[in-house]
Write a structure and sequence with these properties.
alpha+beta, elongated, 149 residues, Endonuclease, Chain A
């Protein structure tokens, strides 16, 4: 007869040990690029005839989600939870609160540095929030059609 061993979580120190396997699966499924809001926005740009952009372009600071090198324009599409959207006002997780406060603070600081570094190179920088992609996609696409033309 087999004995069931408890799940052992191996961690690299970037996140606290989850309380359950379900939480671990949810957190592990988060992606850094090609997220759903990014894919929705890129498809809408393409449909509107806005092409010629680079994805996660390494030749400028911050690796913008979408870069138009010829127009010196960078777009970051930020997830509301991870980047602390000013509109959604997500609450902190109830467990490991100090870890999450620190994590989110570092995310916000990193985002600000990316924007500042790009602006020093005379780039236009736009941040689009996940909730904006969901609520006003066409308005945002129309805005960029005007900006980029």
């Amino acid at each position: 007869m087999k004995t069931i061993q408890p799940k052992v979580y191996l961690r690299d120190g970037r996140a606290p040990i989850p309380k359950s396997e379900a939480i671990s699966k949810v957190m592990s499924a988060n992606k850094g690029k090609d997220t759903t809001p990014e894919m929705i926005f890129r498809k809408a740009l393409w449909k509107a005839g806005i092409k010629g952009y680079r994805l996660n372009w390494k030749k400028v600071p911050g690796r913008p989600d979408i870069a138009f090198p010829g127009k010196r324009t960078a777009i970051f599409i930020n997830g509301c939870f991870w980047h602390r959207c000013p509109y959604c006002n997500y609450k902190l997780p109830k467990t490991n609160t100090s870890f999450w406060e620190n994590k989110f603070s570092k995310n916000i600081d990193r985002d600000k540095r990316k924007i500042e570094d790009l602006k020093k190179l005379d780039w236009q920088v736009f941040v689009i929030w996940e909730c904006e992609v969901k609520s006003s996609l066409q308005t945002i696409v129309d805005k960029f059609k005007t900006i980029l033309s």
